[in-house]
Write a structure and sequence with these properties.
Oligomer: single chain
Strand content: over 45%
Number of strands: 14
Number of helices: 2
Low-confidence stretches: 1-23, 25-30
Radius of gyration: 37 Å
Mean pLDDT: 85
Largest sheet: 7 strands, antiparallel
Structural class: mainly beta
Length: 234
């Protein structure tokens, strides 16, 4: 009986010591169960087709699209691409001086161009698909593409030496003559200064389909323009 009492007493004395760490341990286990493990960003391997250094160019984002991390292999032309946690800002101007083109292993896939972005402090800001960006600083307007007009030549170009004065702010154009000498393509290059004197060096006659041919002259320091925009200088 004495022996049993000693065992009970010993167990009773041990209980507080054994029970004391249970509460913290239970709490730690419960907390650990509620913590979500961070899922590593999924990386896709691409073939590196081209890497180019370009003149520093400003870009801004069309929308808050994805930025990417790209890891390049040291011993082969491959690159691992994974999404960054941060998005592109639509309120910033970025710059780039490096571009790459990557190709996936999917059949019929086309190269995708990526830009190496830096922020306004010159710090690396991530890689981004070129299709997500617009060339030019934030708030700048991309100039409209000049419209080209194709005309049929009715007379070959001839050399002239005449002085003209612009009668109005007519357009002048740069030209591309077809190799066969039958057509010419005009693209607007600027506007004449009304009242300004110009020297002409060449003359052609050309027309659009089913219209009358008109004379065009080449002006030094400008381009080709309709002779009707000019008058002979005195």
């Amino acid at each position: 009986m004495k022996k049993i009492n000693v065992l009970i007493a010993t167990a009773a004395l041990a209980l507080p010591l054994a029970a004391a760490p249970l509460a913290p341990a239970t709490t730690l286990i419960a907390n650990a169960a509620t913590v979500k493990k961070a899922t590593p960003a999924k990386a896709t391997t691409y073939t590196l087709k081209k890497a180019t250094s370009i003149k520093k160019t400003a870009y801004h984002a069309k929308k808050a699209g994805d930025k990417y991390k790209i890891e390049f292999a040291a011993d082969r032309a491959t690159a691992k691409v994974s999404k960054s946690k941060t998005k592109l800002s639509t309120k910033k101007t970025y710059t780039t001086s490096k571009t790459i083109e990557l190709l996936s292993s999917k059949k019929g896939a086309k190269e995708v161009k990526y830009l190496h972005l830096k922020n306004d402090k010159g710090e690396f800001a991530g890689w981004v698909k070129a299709s997500e960006m617009t060339k030019g600083a934030l708030g700048s307007k991309t100039p409209a593409k000049a419209k080209a007009t194709k005309l049929t030549l009715t007379k070959k170009a001839k050399t002239i030496k005449k002085a003209y004065t612009a009668t109005k702010k007519g357009e002048f154009a740069k030209t591309v003559f077809a190799k066969d000498g039958k057509t010419v393509t005009l693209t607007k290059a600027g506007t004449l200064t009304s009242g300004k004197k110009y020297d002409a060096t060449k003359s052609i006659y050309a027309k659009a389909s089913k219209t009358t041919a008109h004379e065009y002259v080449l002006l030094k320091g400008a381009g080709w323009t309709l002779a009707s925009n000019l008058k002979a200088a005195k």
